[in-house]
What we know:
- Helix content is 30%, strand content 28%.
- The protein has 5 helices and 8 strands, in the order E-E-H-H-H-E-E-E-H-E-H-E-E.
- The longest helix is centred in the first third of the chain and has 17 residues, at 43-59.
Amino acid sequence: MTPPLRSERLLLEAYVPADEDDFVALFMDDRVSRWMGNGPWPEADYRATFARIFTHAYQSENFDVWAVRQDGRLVGHAEIKPAKVVEGHELVYGLVPEVWGRGLGTELAKAVVAYGFAALHLEQVYATVAEPNVASLAALRKLAFRHVRDITEDDGTITHLLSCGRAGQQVSSREPEMYR
Length: 180
């Protein structure tokens, strides 16, 4: 089961069924979904995805997925899962626009990457970021993510594949609470 993680301002914990509407609202927000895969999707698809978290991720323990909370409110989503573009694990995260610009993306990514190194014993963590998503690129650079290669998508847009290695990581000046 996905373990809870704490950072300075965030609590990452397993979703509960009552989170469904907030999950759907997060991903239906065009400002968020434009950076998350091929979004936005129809609402029914997000509801089906939420249901699969409980069956595909939690019950089978295929990968870790967290509801991200600040002061008890769901403000984001995070995952660390097997990547499709490389042999390894990928960091995926998103936050509600109301909390953007406060350093929470960096804080969230830092906690998940530290978990990947400490608990999953990963040597590398990858991330894919759309070229125009300068905020996420900046957040990941702060955590020692480096450019691996560019991926040209079917629509001609560019996605950057980034990697952060255990040896070169600057992620863990403060490990998540579960490791202290």
